[in-house]
């Protein structure tokens, strides 16, 4: 059997997975795991990209020592990028999307081209850290960076370039930039011209499932590995996760749960109307030219960042303890809008939860368990809010939700989601992103023949857990209060 080496990068960690496909199931083993730690220098938050590339090399070495592999796939988070100069050198460490440099950039851009025009062209949810606004920050404040740039490469494309020397942009990751035409799946150069960005820096776009390039001679010699292809998988981590949804029907709802919660449906074409623009849904690219019509929701970041704060204060509690404390706390005493701007940045998040509750005239939590309960139930109610919107847009056809990704290890969140949304939840696979990445590589190698075969392989390889609603009427009553205190409207 052929072997695939998958690199799956999240916002806080990454791993290398070695996998085989036996004709029915995907069999994979984690062979290397590492943290993904940001570095703040002179007030700017960076990704430590050279260290991450070192971890890729370490994964390749380990896989080689285990008998080798036949291809590589890489997926990462979206929007962030590196700039390459005419000598092929990285101009600067990529900046983290949570850096505050773009806080006021969208408003400045809208003075040149309207928010509505940008959305009608790209179908992408307006978020201040989108690639468009990061590039415009450089245009306004560091024009010399763009002047010295030969190519801009999104994170998985940057890693693929470091391995192969080839410049490309895979379509699903390119769709997160807010600069892609969702119909042609190519750069919107008319928009790029209007924004005054240099057209030459945008690399050729290739579809997921194609060959990005071959490992360079230099890499093969350094690491003692075979010269194998690097496949352009669905390189945005959510695109890989959605590709691995074990759904049997063509029309289904998913939540990809991680640092972010990506809540949506898969469609053949983008859905772009003034009403949808107002609702701030996004149209991102998926495997086989599908569209991921979804809402970006602040996800487990709120729990992760709260835990980091308590750890800084000397309380090194595990996620299992936090879940138990949340379950023990009294429900529905207060709510937050998890997408409130105050929760975006790193720092003392528990304090900001308390401040939000105080500002909105609610009960102010007094301990960890109460803070965690507020976060959990508010996230579940945000899911309900989004689920209701999707049903209204699609004639109330959805009665169940597929939950994917590492976040489903949190059984409390799965249970609350079922109850809040009054819908059956099918949870699995936990390793959705890695399975989607690996499945697309096997597709590129000719081992998996179709998209349906990929999903059948994932389903055969996965234990799906089922959660049914509990006390949905209590959640419906709480939802009315949630809408009132957060200022959201149905």
Mean pLDDT: 97
Distance between the termini: 52 Å
* Low-confidence segments: none
Fraction in beta strands: 15-25%
From the alpha-carbon coordinates, what is the Rg to the nearest angstrom?
22 Å
Count the beta strands.
21
Q: How would you sum up the global shape?
A: globular
Secondary structure category: alpha/beta
Major β-sheet strand ordering: 17-18-16-15-19-20-21
List the total number of helices.
Answer: 19
Helix content: 40-55%
Main sheet makeup: 7 strands, mixed
Summarize the entry for a quick read.
Helix 13 crosses helix 15 (368-393) and helix 15 packs across helix 16 (411-421). The protein has helices at 49-65, 105-110, 115-122, 131-141, 143-147, 155-164, 171-174, 189-195, 217-223, 237-243, 274-279, 301-312, 319-328, 349-359, 368-393, 411-421, 432-444, 451-460, 472-486, and strands at 3-9, 13-21, 26-35, 38-41, 44-47, 71-75, 81-84, 151-154, 169-170, 180-181, 186-187, 205-206, 210-214, 229-232, 253-257, 260-267, 282-285, 291-298, 400-404, 424-427, 465-467. It is of the alpha/beta class.
């Amino acid at each position: 059997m052929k072997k695939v080496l998958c690199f799956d990068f999240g916002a806080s960690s990454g791993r290398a997975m070695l996998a085989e496909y036996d004709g029915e199931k995907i069999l994979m083993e984690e062979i290397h795991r590492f943290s993904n730690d940001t570095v703040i220098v002179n007030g700017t938050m960076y990704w430590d990209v050279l260290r991450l590339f070192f971890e890729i090399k370490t994964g390749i070495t380990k896989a080689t020592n285990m008998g080798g592999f036949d291809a590589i796939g890489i997926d990462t988070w979206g929007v962030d990028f590196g700039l390459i100069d005419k000598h092929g050198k990285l101009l600067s460490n990529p900046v983290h999307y949570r850096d505050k440099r773009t806080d006021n950039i969208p408003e400045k851009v809208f003075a040149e081209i309207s928010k509505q025009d940008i959305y009608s062209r790209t179908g992408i949810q307006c978020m201040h850290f989108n690639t468009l606004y990061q590039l415009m920050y450089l245009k306004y404040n560091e024009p010399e960076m763009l002047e010295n740039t030969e190519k801009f490469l999104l994170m998985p494309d940057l890693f693929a370039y470091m391995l192969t020397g080839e410049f490309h942009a895979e379509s699903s990751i390119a769709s997160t930039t807010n600069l892609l035409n969702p119909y042609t799946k190519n750069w919107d150069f008319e928009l790029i011209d209007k924004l005054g960005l240099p057209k030459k820096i945008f690399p050729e776009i290739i579809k997921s499932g194609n060959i990005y390039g071959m490992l360079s001679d230099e890499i093969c010699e350094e690491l003692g590995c075979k010269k194998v292809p690097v496949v352009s998988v669905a390189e945005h981590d959510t695109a890989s996760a959605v590709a691995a949804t074990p759904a049997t029907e063509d029309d289904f709802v998913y939540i990809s749960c991680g640092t972010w919660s990506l809540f949506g449906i898969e469609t053949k074409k983008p859905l772009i109307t003034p009403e949808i623009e107002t609702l701030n849904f996004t149209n991102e690219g998926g495997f086989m030219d599908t569209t991921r019509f979804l809402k970006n929701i602040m996800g487990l970041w709120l729990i992760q960042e709260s835990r980091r704060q308590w750890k800084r204060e000397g309380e090194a509690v595990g996620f299992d303890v936090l879940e138990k404390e949340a379950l023990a706390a009294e429900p529905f005493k207060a709510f937050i809008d998890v997408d409130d701007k105050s929760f975006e940045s790193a720092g003392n998040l528990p304090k900001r939860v308390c401040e939000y509750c105080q500002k909105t005239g609610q009960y102010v939590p007094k301990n960890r368990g109460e803070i965690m309960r507020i976060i959990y139930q508010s996230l579940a109610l945000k899911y309900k809010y989004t689920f209701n919107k999707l049903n209204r847009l699609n004639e109330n056809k959805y009665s169940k939700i597929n939950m994917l990704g590492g976040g489903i290890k949190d059984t409390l969140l799965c249970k609350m989601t079922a109850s809040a949304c009054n819908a059956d939840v099918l949870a699995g696979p936990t390793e959705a992103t890695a399975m989607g990445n690996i499945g697309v590589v096997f597709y590129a190698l000719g081992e998996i023949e179709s998209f349906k075969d990929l999903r059948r392989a994932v389903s055969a390889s996965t234990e799906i857990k089922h959660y049914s609603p509990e006390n949905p009427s209590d959640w419906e009553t709480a939802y009315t209060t949630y809408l009132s205190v957060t200022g959201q409207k149905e």
